Amino acid sequence: MNQVYDKKTIRLHWISAALVIGLWIAGQCIDFFPKGTPRITVRSLHICFGVLLAVILAVRLSWRFGAGVKLPAADTGLMGRAAIGVHHLLYLLLVAIVLVGAACVWLRGDNIFNLFTVPAFDVADKSLRHDAVELHGLIANILLAVAGLHALAAIFHHVVLKDEVLVRMLPRLSDKSRSDQT
After folding, report:
1. Residue 89 burial class via C-beta count within 10 angstroms: exposed 0-12, middle 13-18, buried 19 and up
2. Residues contacting residue 108 through CB under 8 Å, at least 6 positions apart
3. CB count in 10 Å sphere of residue 153
4. What's the Cα-to-Cα distance from 163 to each of 2, 3, 150, 153, 154, rounded to whole Å?
5. How many degrees, rounded to 5, is the angle at CA 82 between CA 141 and CA 7?
6. Contacts of 150 (CB under 8 A, 6+ apart)
């Protein structure tokens, strides 16, 4: 096979993955911090890195549908169609998590690093804020689960099927690269 994505596609993929994992961990930990400046700081960092994820996602989508390398499906059968579906689902979940996260900031009227406050949509509607935060958490959990299955499938391809699908995103794993290093 020996087909690999271009360096920009690979970087955007791995930056997205790191941001998703980091944001999920931070999201799970926000309430462990005491109210006041510590919690505001952690939530502000979560929001800022969420904005970074939105920017990376926008760049990634424009690159993917623009100048980025487009590789044919590694499998033309059921596994190939499933892989395409999972990739589309991952993009959909990324867009959803960013949009719902932005809605949460707006609905809560978050204080950002004690520097400024985003005006709240409706201060009195606590159930709407609660529901939006719950939805954000649900989407985050689904995104992490689907991304985990995506990673396991890539490892399965590499270890069991030995078809170099993982090499597309990790070119250093190719047999040629390994033999060049010895």
Report:
1. middle
2. 118, 120, 129, 133
3. 17
4. 9, 11, 16, 12, 10
5. 80
6. 86, 87, 90
Burial 120-139 (b: 16+ CB within 10 A, else e): eeeeeeeeebeebbebbbeb
**Exposure of 94 in the CB half-sphere (CA atoms within 13 A):** 26
Q: Which two tokens stand for residue 165?
A: 């699908």
The tens place of each residue's pLDDT in the chain, 182 residues long, gives: 468 888 999 999 999 999 999 999 999 999 999 999 999 999 999 999 999 999 999 999 999 888 877 888 888 889 889 999 999 999 999 999 999 999 999 999 999 999 999 999 988 899 999 999 999 999 999 999 999 999 999 999 999 999 889 999 998 887 554 444 44
Helices (H), 65-182: 78-108, 126-156, 175-181
Residue 163 has a CB neighbour count (10 Å cut-off) of 14
Q: What is the C-alpha separation between 45 and 111, in angstroms, rounded?
A: 11
For the record, the structure tokens of 95 come out as 């867009």
